[in-house]
Amino acid sequence: MAHSQLTSDGTFTKDPLRAKLSYSVMLLVRGRMPSVFTVQLAQALTIATRYSVVRQQGLGPADAFATEGSILHYKHQHFRLLSLIAKTYAMFFGSRVCDEQYNKLREMQSKNDHSLLPAVHALTAGMKAYVTSEAADGAEDARKLCGGHGYMSISGLPDIVGALVGGATFEGENYVLWQQLGRHLLKQLDRLQDGEPIEPHVQYLTDIEDPNLPCCASATQFLDPKVQLAIYRDRAHRMVVKAHSAIRASSKLPADAWNEHMMLLISASRAHIEYFILKSFTDFISSLSDSTCNYLRIVLNRMRSLYALSTIINPRTVDAVSFIETADERSPYFTSQQLDTIRHLVNGLLDQLLPEAVALTDAWDFSDASLCSALGMYDGNVYENIMRWVEQLPINQKAWQNAGVQQGWKKWVDPILKREAKL
Question: What is the topology classification, in CATH, of domain 18-362?
Answer without folding.
Answer: Butyryl-CoA Dehydrogenase, subunit A; domain 3 (1.20.140)
